[in-house]
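## Example pair
The file below holds two records. Each record gives the amino-acid sequence first, followed by its structure token line.
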Amino acid sequence: MLGQYVQVGVEELASDKLPPLLRLRYSVLTDAVADLGKPDEINKLFVGFQQFLYQPRVSI
């Protein structure tokens, strides 16, 4: 999914794209809910992780 983001841009990870992306990974959305949590939690995680995509890496 992130590779597609790099190729297409930020629109690829818009919230309205989440259900089709989940269907690509899971045969039915109930399987996604079983693995990832309630739909509102999945959406929150999906949107929340995007803030880290362009943060500079910190060397250890």
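Second record, same layout:
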Amino acid sequence: MDIGRELPVALALVLVIEGSVWALFPDAMRRMMAALCERPPAELRIAGMVLAVFGVALAWLVRR
């Protein structure tokens, strides 16, 4: 595994996915962002940690 090459590709894919969602559903994304602003920070932190752990597990399973 060459992290120097795979990390930029992974970040580029994140940009492709994020950009596509914003391009296809701009109104829904605005509503979602407004709803997220009303959530308490602790709830957002927990959701972020759960997603990060899920992402690491998924990457580990794919690379296995």
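Notes on the second record: The two ends are 11 Å apart (CA to CA). The CA atoms of residues 7 and 54 lie 18 Å apart.
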